[in-house]
Structures are given as C-alpha cells and as structure tokens.
Design brief:
Blueprint (H helix, E strand, L loop, with lengths): L6 H13 L2 H8 L3 H15 L5 E2 L4 E2 L4 H7 L1
Antiparallel strand pairs: 1-2
Helix pairs in contact: 1-2, 1-3, 2-3
Length: about 70
C-alpha cells in the first residue's frame, strides 16, 4: 500500500523536536496546540510507531531511533 504523508506533519514533528513541547511548537508555527498534537498523532499512526514519550507536564522531545530512521 502506497500513501503520501503530508509535509505539514513533518513540519510539526520537527518543530516539536526543536522546541521540546507541543505548545512551544504551536507558538512558533502560529497554530493551536491541539493542531500540532493532531499532526503528531497522525504521523505516528501513518508510520506505525510512537515518536515521542509524553508526560503530564510536556512532551519530551526525545527521538526514538526507529522514528528518526523512518523519516530519513
């Protein structure tokens, strides 16, 4: 099965990595935090793996090796 992943999902992923949280990424992108969260959830679903470890306070921006390799 072939599908195309939106560049917007990758953009959100990279912004979360850079800013260390969904809210920081959202601020830098000029969108609402739930939008970034939805993008990450969609990307994780399409790749079939979790890309971040989430905590109650913030999303820890620790790339999983498999997640990083899938995007390269």
């Amino acid at each position: 099965m072939t599908y195309t992943i939106s560049w917007e999902l990758y953009r959100s992923y990279l912004s979360v990595l850079q800013h260390g949280s969904l809210s920081g990424a959202a601020r830098s992108m000029g969108v609402a935090q739930p939008t970034v969260g939805r993008h990450i959830a969609m990307l994780e679903e399409q790749l079939g793996m979790k890309l971040f470890t989430r905590s109650q306070l913030r999303t820890a921006a620790h790339r999983r090796r498999a997640g990083a390799e899938a995007l390269c």
